[in-house]
Design goal:
alpha+beta, coiled coil, 5-stranded antiparallel beta sheet, transmembrane, 15% strand, single chain, flat, MetI-like fold, 60% helix, cell membrane, Phosphate_PstA, 6-stranded antiparallel beta sheet
């Protein structure tokens, strides 16, 4: 019976089904973990005040309970903890205490057995800062130009209103510094390069000097106006400061200009926490990062990922389709064609880091260096295209995903019946017309399948991008309001590299861990969104040309 069962092939079917089911369960479990940890990161937790005994001294610890760990008595004794004879477990709590500028750390472990009391006072403030992370403490006073204007219970409502005004002023400062003054600096740099180009071409005469001097004078006038406006805004935003008392009794005077958000989680209702939750998600999606990428948002990484995938798709799709059309429709089927197909299939198995090394050596140093010498000699010795950037990253990933598009397109072309081609030719159409009006539309779903696979792989790649364009923090986006608007020579941020950087290069591991889950969740959402868009287009094309296939 068993021998016949094996001969029937049923065991291998069940084995394959078990393997597929196991993989599916693991993938779903991983996605569930990412969703749970990533989404929970933004929910405001209550802040506790612990009376804690350590080395015979009583101290106050304020913070959020992030994690709880239970260790067996045997392992606890091996780690150096004193344990009672009847004790079974050692329970520890990981507390986010913040106040890194005072304590030197954001997190600390405390023993549950040493906690004498735990309470959740209503007046504890959580203060999100632009530097040094969160601050936990009690409000003492609000000052305006050094004079106390509110104390005690009156501080929170007054400081909340003043902080809203400070944030509005901060946005104006950011607009002036990044957009207006940034445009002036960009214009001055273009004038400098233009002058250098004229000098190299021996065209730097009196007329050119006067023309550039007039343009430079206009930029300098605009710069002085912006600086005057900026000084007034800085004077306004630095007017107020908040005095807060930490858990150890020290008082800290913090200017409102350096604060992002103030709230009292212990008094917030479920609706208030829900509003705070969505506000934090919006900040995560739309703001720039801060605190070594462990705080703030990741909009530049989202933008860079999507921009790179779009440019890569624009490059790889026509190249892959043209190569597949030539090999299937025009090339003579023989040894050379088979060799090319083998080479294309083998390219799909080359490690991605090899493509990165090739992109760095050929695209960046050779191609980019020669472009700089031919078209941008005035920028020397600073490179323009002779350095990693968005263009070279997109081309490298296009080369990496090219075999996928070629194979998918060629398979789509091979499935089109020969009778359709013959019928078109019999009606008087040329081979090119047959290809353009009949064959390619019917093969378009297969092309979209190749593009879907290419996008899915490219959006998640990290290793080659580290060599050809991705950076930890990009000072400006590749797309802005300065001519030529799309700056393909600029470096950019990427979600995959952001996960690697925050998860493995961050100096603050505990603060970075929840952000890794949140960014991973976002990367999955971006990839799924791009794929669903391509799938919708493919299905539309498939339905459109289904009658031709019949």
């Amino acid at each position: 019976m068993i021998k016949q069962w094996f001969k029937s092939g049923s065991p291998w079917i069940w084995l394959n089904a078990a393997a597929v089911s196991t993989c599916l369960i693991l993938v779903v479990g991983l996605l569930a973990l990412i969703v749970f940890r990533g989404a929970l990161h933004f929910w405001p937790s209550n802040v506790a005040e612990f009376i804690y005994m350590e080395d015979g001294r009583k101290q106050t610890v304020i913070g959020e309970v992030v994690d709880t760990s239970s260790t067996t008595a045997l392992m606890a004794r091996a780690s150096g903890h004193a344990m009672a004879d009847d004790a079974d477990l050692l329970v520890q709590h990981l507390i986010k205490i913040g106040n890194r500028d005072l304590t030197g750390m954001d997190f600390r472990w405390i023993l549950d057995r040493n906690i004498q009391s735990r309470q959740y006072p209503d007046d504890i403030l959580v203060i999100e800062r632009r530097e040094w992370g969160n601050f936990y403490g009690y409000p003492v006073a609000l000052k305006q130009e050094g004079q106390v204007i509110a104390e005690g219970p009156q501080v929170f409502p007054v400081v909340s209103e003043r902080l809203r005004d400070a944030l509005s002023v901060y946005k104006q400062i950011q607009r002036l510094e990044k957009k207006e003054i940034g445009a002036v600096n960009y214009g001055l740099e273009r004038l400098r390069l233009k002058q250098r180009r004229l000098e190299l071409n021996e065209q730097w005469d009196e007329a050119a000097k006067q023309l550039l001097a007039a343009e430079r004078g206009e930029y300098e006038r605009q710069y002085r106006e912006y600086q005057t406006e900026l000084q007034a805004l800085y004077k306004t935003i630095n007017r107020n400061s908040l005095v807060v008392k930490a858990s150890d009794g020290r008082e800290v005077d913090m200017p409102l200009a350096k604060l992002v958000r103030i709230y009292r989680p212990n008094t917030m209702s479920v609706w208030a926490k829900t509003g705070h939750y969505f506000e934090k998600i919006a900040e995560f999606l739309l703001d720039d990062p801060r605190e070594a990428n462990t705080e703030g948002g990741i909009f530049p990484a989202i933008f860079g990922t999507v921009m790179m995938v779009i440019i890569m798709s624009v490059i790889v799709t026509p190249l892959g389709v043209i190569a597949a059309i030539y090999m299937r429709e025009y090339a003579k089927q023989g040894f050379t064609t088979r060799l090319i197909r083998i080479a294309v299939n083998n390219l799909a198995g080359v490690p991605s880091i090899v493509y990165g090394v090739f992109g760095l050596g050929f695209f960046v140093y050779i191609l980019g260096g020669n472009i700089d010498q031919l078209f941008f000699p005035e920028a020397a010795p600073a490179p323009v295209f002779g350095t990693p950037g968005l263009l070279w990253a997109s081309i490298t990933l296009a080369l990496l995903t090219l075999p996928v598009v070629i194979v998918s397109t060629e398979e789509g072309l091979s499935r089109i019946p020969k009778s359709i081609r013959e019928g078109s030719l019999a009606l008087g159409a040329t081979k090119a017309e047959t290809l353009w009006r009949t064959v390619l539309p019917m093969a378009s779903p297969a092309m979209m399948t190749g593009l879907i696979l290419a996008v899915a792989r490219a959006a998640g790649e990290v290793a080659p991008l580290m060599l050809v364009g991705v950076v930890k923090l990009a000072p400006s986006l590749p797309l802005d309001g300065n001519f030529p608007f799309l700056h393909l020579d600029r470096k950019f941020m990427h979600l995959g590299f952001h996960i690697y950087d925050v998860g493995f290069q961050s100096p603050n591991v505990e603060a970075a861990r929840p952000l890794v889950y949140a960014t991973s969740l976002l990367l999955v959402v971006v990839i799924v969104g791009l794929n669903l868009s391509a799938v919708a287009i493919r299905n539309h094309l498939r339905e459109k040309y289904r009658a031709l296939e019949g």
